[in-house]
Amino acid sequence: MSTVLLLTGGLAAQAQVRPTTPPVYPPPAPLPNDTLRADQVGRSQEFAVPSVVGQGPSKGLIAHLEGLADFKINSDLNDQTPAGKASSTVVKNRRAFIKGYIPVWNHPHLKVILGFNYDREEFQFQNPDNASFYRNLEDKGLKTVGTQLAVIRPVDEVHWYLARVKGELNGDYTSSELSIQDYLKMSGEFIYGWKRSPYLSWGVGAQVGYTFGRQSIYPVILYNRTFNPRWGVESLFPARVTVRRNLNAKTLLFGGYTVDGMNYNIKLREPLANGLQTLILRETELKFRLRLEREIYDFLWFGIEGGYRYNVNFNAVDAASNERTLPQLFSGSRNRVVQNTLGTVPYASIEVFLVPPRKFLKKINQGR
């Protein structure tokens, strides 16, 4: 009898510590830039990938709309007005974008993803006549048209690396006056990582891009981990850190921060007092956010997000100087023409996105 009790107690103890698989859809789901094969994450596998068990479904096509409440803007115009300063209230700052990801090559040892995006941002001021800078931005469509190529290369069951290059046309151009040389912005990243378990993947690397307003090179740390069936973390530090809560198989809750950067080339409607007719507008903002994602029907999901935006940088610099020289990737030396201070403001966004249908994923799994 004592032997039976010991065996029973041992089995019960093992049952208590055995990890359970978090309820995710589709179980388990990879990152958008990872793979469409759901059965390659979180199970016995030959090649490592950056994703971990518990992450949400892959996003194929995304439509996003974001709005902010009214906020104050105070500007130092470097003596372009008699007082050298101006202020107003931004009564409209709206953003919208469409993004898409297409897997052009999806094999266990190599994955290639082609992406595209179209973004648009607009401003309206309560008193645009206070400064020519406001009048030049009033109802101007600031656009971003971009494409990217990402490569995920699983080396073995532990090691992987990710490389991405992206080109965007940023500014107030129209189709009739588009000059690629004037508006083209390039960015890229390389990350080498380790898949320690189905629940932990991390990597280190570097990015070149405009996350902090101007083109710069900075180190990055990728860290994806699922702690238990309900909680996890997804981060690409320093650009974003997010804590994930799996409410159920079809609902996920996220909380954390993101750092976003925009960089627009602008041709002015009216020259500034110093004669400048072109500017580069740099935006850098820190967002503290809470986000909910939920399935609507099989392949269709939606997301809602809200939080506060803290503006780090909203300055205009002289576009005549060359931003693409190597020393300026590190120094950021540039003639600031307009320096702005923006108020902290709440924001909200809504998003609809497509994910791989369950039937499609089942066919892929059955074909392996």
Automatic annotation (TrEMBL):
Residue intervals of the DUF6268 domain: 128-350
Top-level taxon in the UniProt lineage: Bacteria
Pfam family, one: DUF6268
InterPro entries on file: DUF6268 (IPR046235)
Name of the featured protein: DUF6268 domain-containing protein
